[in-house]
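Handout, section B. The chain below has 363 residues.
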Amino acid sequence: MDHPDRTPALVVDLAVVAGAYQALSTALPGIALHYALKCNGFRPVLTTLRDCGCGFEVASATELDELLAIGIDPAGVLYSNPVKPVRQIARAYAAGIRHFAFDSEDELAKLAAVAPGSAVSVRLAANDMDSEVPSEGKFGVDPDAAVELMLAARDRNLVPSGIAFHVGSQMMRPKAWRAPLRAVAEIMDKLVADNVFVELVNVGGGFPARYDVPPPPLAEYGAVIAEGVAALPYPVRVAAEPGRALVAEAGMLVATVIGTAIRSGRRWIHLDVGAFNGLMESLETGNRLRFPVRDSRDAPERDRYHLTGPTCDGQDTILFDVALSAGLATGDQVYIGCAGAYTTVYASTFNGFDVPEIRCSSD
């Protein structure tokens, strides 16, 4: 690494990634984990998960290229974006992907044309789930529409093999999986009448990481999902697509204070990282996602600060009312924890500011 002290930087602890995979695997026995690559595509993260035995899920053919580069067999990769450009479907199919998600007749037509004979999973809607990071509402259909789409897939000589859903990101309620799994059972029952048997149920992602408060134990999520799977009409393979739960706690954003100010009695700390170049989820959640933060002074005397980014945009604020060392000044460092998920992958060079460099804690 040419500049090991340059900031902003995302420092990733690969041992934490491996530990998170083992913990989630233990909590979800019998469920195949497919890491959602969109969360953090840093190659050492991917190779660590590969070596742990983790599967993968992609949202684009470009993401698939990253997996091919580390020797992942595309036949085991799930392409779970329900709407895909035709050229990317064709590219993924040519590379060897054979399982695609969909939620519309239009998507079926594209898949039948350029990925003939592929296995497909219909995306079931799981709205109004109230996750900490809202992510649902754009995709998915109701159970009756799901049945019709699965039959339409068969009519197009595709293999209607799966049902998928996603309860939202950073879901703090394990019981959120109950209603979607009941809906899956309903769909399976209806499809049996047309001699269509589901092989795969994909319970999606949403498994949480620890930010300012600890989430429920992973075992509670596993128990709810196991109960729902046991109630399905017949046995199926089960997959999940974790992202945040595997990598968030492994990452720490290291930022430098570039300026301070007192405005209307409030202390502001300006950092070289903000919403637009690494912490977009602070905007996405209306600053509800409370990243754990500490600083290089680590003084017992504390003040409360608003943490904001380097750009001229008034929305570029990360956290409000954060307790840090009194007297923070330009040149001090701030360490933002639980930053391994959905940070650098969202980052842009808006206003000309650098995106965080990514490095391993062992570098």
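Note. The domain at 251-360 is CATH 2.40.37.10 (Lyase, Ornithine Decarboxylase; Chain A, domain 1). Compare this with the example in section A.
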